Amino acid sequence: MDKEIPRLIRAEAALWVTRLHGPHRDPTLESGFRRWLAEDPRHAGAFELATDAWQRSGNLATSMPMRSRHLAPRFPRLRFASTVLASTAIACMVVFTALHFLRDGTFATGPGEQRILTLSDGTQVTMNANSRMLVQFDGRVRRVVLAEGEASFDVTKHQVRSFIVVIGDRKVIALGTSFMVRRDEPGGSAFTVTLLEGRVAVEPLSLPDVLPEQSAAVRVLSPGERLHFADHSPETVDSPSIERVTAWRRGLLIFDDASLSEAAAEFNRYGPVKITIGDADIGKIRVGGVFKIGNPADFAQVVANTHDLRIINRSGEIVMTNRPLEERSSDKR
Q1: What is the tens place of the pLDDT at every residue in 96-124?
Q2: Which string of b and e fits 274-295 if b means at least 16 CB within 10 Å?
Q3: Alpha-carbon distance 73 to 79, whole Å?
């Protein structure tokens, strides 16, 4: 497919990637980008390649020289050519790097890694740590398969193609909306969907890929609602603190009356250092507060000081246990 996309279109796509990830992104820029996408069906494919290259190459270019702050709604070829030539080195690096990567639309993050992607339709996806997803766009539907982990989706509205996130044997259908999906076990059917804005429906894969009305097999969420779907258990809906469930996008973890075991499990999703609960009874301790994702040691120390616990630091591990009786007695003396 790469050979069918002219070099100039690929260069334009590279410029769009860097501008959309730059400091001057605003509604005017996004509107111009959507018009550019609509001008030629090859634009979407070129943008997908450029985005993949930008992500996999460590966000090489964050800005490129332009004649004005915003890209024009349309690109007169002759006038645009000088801009392309002026940034040939960077643009070619971004575009040609894409030719050396797998283009199956698979994206993944490791421990402690988060990634922001802009898909070919303009949808922005923020992937949490230890996540993996497959993007499968075609002329009929915009489909993303979340194999594991967590991601938030700020979906660009499209009047023709629905936006679908597949989780196991279920799918989330949206139009223009913002929501989060979490799947901790790759092989299981348990997942969580939190709707931030707009409207989504959660339904079996066998149903049509259109946003339906609510029925026995379909759950339509309202903004602020969170759906829990667990293996062999009835689904539940609650309304959590949006600030808390989206805190990971700001590099934070917020706990509100969580058990120590639950809090430790959240920290263990990030980074190489793991928290181990050495005594089963202390795992039931209730904790709360705001903590940085990448600093489990501070969290462990705060909890230990508050509940008179003992911390044992090992290579790549923080063990939390009850303090021996002799230590407690010596403190009292």
Answers
A1: 333 332 233 789 998 888 999 888 888 99
A2: bbebeeeebbebebeeebebeb
A3: 13
Tell me: pLDDT of 320 over 90: yes
Q: What residue ranges do the domains of the chain occupy?
A: 2-98, 106-238, 251-332
3-state secondary structure at position 41: helix
- pLDDT tier at 234 (50, 70, 90 boundaries)? confident
Q: Residue 101: which of 58, 42, 136 has the closest Cα? A: 58
Task: Please state which CATH number belongs to domain 251-332.
Answer: 3.55.50.30
Hey, is 216 helix, strand or coil? coil
Q: How far, in Å, CA of 177 to CA of 115, rounded? A: 20
Q: What's the CATH code, domain 106-238?
A: 2.60.120.1440
Q: Which string of DSSP letters, residue by residue, matches 184-214?
A: --TTS--EEEEEEES-EEEEETTS-SS----
Place of tokens 């004649």: 67
Give the residue-averaged pLDDT of 167-188: 87
Q: Using an 8 Å Cβ cutoff, are 217 and 229 in contact?
A: no
Whether the CB-CB separation of 136 and 166 falls below 8 Å is answered with no
Q: How far is residue 108's CA from residue 3's CA, in Å, rounded to a whole number?
A: 26
Predicted confidence at residue 221, as pLDDT, reads: 92
